[in-house]
Amino acid sequence: MRIGTLGNGLMAEALASQWVKAGHDVMVGGRSADKAAEVAKRAGATAGTLQEAAAYGDVVLLAVPADVAVSVAGAVPAGTTLIDCTNALDHRDFTLAQPATAEAISRAVPEVRVVKAFNLAADAVWRNPPAGLGVPICGDSGVDQVAELVRDLGCTPVLAGGLRRAKLLEATAALAIGIWVGGGDVREMFPPLAAAFGDVPPGQP
User: Which intervals hold domain Pyrroline-5-carboxylate reductase catalytic N-terminal (predicted)?
Assistant: First the structure.
């Protein structure tokens, strides 16, 4: 695939590096040409402006601060799959500063296929992802492309429903980050389902 990144920060570099290794053509886009060129060189990608990267990709990764995500997404052409990995956190108490970022992006660019993914782990995880790591994906279309990119990292795509459920992923990230900052270990919260619920899904009689 051809992949553009809107943003040249840590998340963009980590994921771009992995996708280049998997054989994809990646353009790192940023407001600063020098910064984009530095990141692209480390990732083995090419560099461009935000507009160039948006037009370059069959798939575009939105990896900018959440408070500018909606405006930056406006550069993405119709029909493109846009991966939103942002988290709109209020760092004072680790709640959501915006309740549904992915849906807000989709409303702003309704002709773009918005998919929420890669928001539950920091860049350090994506630089060397654990084999088989489950990566939840929420979207109404474009999900198959994103699932392929998840598998290219050696991870397992977890189809988590349509874009309306993306707000639950965003809330999960806020919850997990708040627990981690407080010294907790979120891995202890999710025992194997068979042990927790037997053969009956939670919420079922």
Answer: 2-87
